[in-house]
Amino acid sequence: xxxxxxxxxxxxxxxxxxxxxxxxxxxxxxxxxxxxxxxxxxxxxxxxxxxxxxxxxxxxxxxxxxxxxxxxxxxxxxxxxxxxxxxxxxxxxxxxxxxxxxxxxxxxxxxxxxxxxxxxxxxxxxxxxxxxxxxxxxxxxxxxxxxxxxxxxxxxxxxxxxxxxxxxxxxxxxxxxxxxxxxxxxxxxxxxxxxxxxxxxxxxxxxxxxxxxxxxxxxxxxxxxxxxxxxxxxxxxxxxxxxxxxxxxxxxxxxxxxxxxxxxxxxxxxxxxxxxxxxxxxxxxxxxxxxxxxxxxxxxxxxxxxxxxxxxxxxxxxxxxxxxxxxxxxxxxxxxxxxxxxxxxxxxxxxxxxx
Length: 355
What we know:
By secondary structure, this protein is α/β, with parallel strands linked by helices. It has helices spanning 5-9, 47-63, 83-92, 108-116, 130-136, 141-155, 173-183, 198-201, 210-226, 240-247, 300-304, 307-310, 334-341, and strands at 2-4, 14-20, 67-73, 96-100, 119-125, 158-165, 187-192, 233-236, 273-276, 281-283, 291-294. The longest helix is centred in the N-terminal third of the chain and has 17 residues, at 47-63. It is globular, with a radius of gyration of 20 Å.
């Protein structure tokens, strides 16, 4: 099955919270933003603060008439000393959540316990075939991930796989599509590498030009069509898929007149998503510097309505997208753009659209 990102994430009645409860992790992935640029101070949220934050999330979602959907992550959240206490509190409050973590501590009894406490889905990463993936992460990680996929499925949770694509590994993504289909993965998605500094952005081993990126999408689309009857949902996470499908005649924008700055789809920045870090900082998006405040100093509701958050809703500031007929549906990836220019409103560095 082939679906756009919004089909899975928005879920109409839900609001997405990506919550990092610890920086501790078994790996030091080369493209990780947590440990980038010399960061080495590991922070873990105390249990009392996790209860406070959970209550804040519940209150906020009630105020906006939405249900919380928490993407619990880290680091590796299972390494948090109060991991199970938090999951018990989620269960008590009937909170829908998934976990984004590593494969190293996943045994069948552990996964069944997560499932019983309400975990809907566990997301792992595959960033290439064995040699490439282990180069990004650590030796043995690839095979451990394949083992974990089988265990997660056996537990009854959905299993999702995410790949981060750059020039280093894009030629291996089509084979990964075949692999996840063979393994019966429930959801597969690919996101672009987000540079953690401008100096890294144009590294010839990483950077993809717009036409190179479009060529990569051609390879993926062919595979997706080959697997169109698969039970795996291929999640078109990158909003440039909107442009790609538009050019193929497979996406037709709403022909009704749109109000100025009306946004229908595309990036959920400032619309349907926030990130909370282990120290309580609230970000509009974790993949770029976008702090809007701290949850211990101001309520989540007030942060959501703040001028700081509103800075990420200035859609008329998009330099290139503002001239594009797909502005209401796409806008590329502001965090990737920020990684290249430190201005999220610049033109997306992989967008090939001429406006």
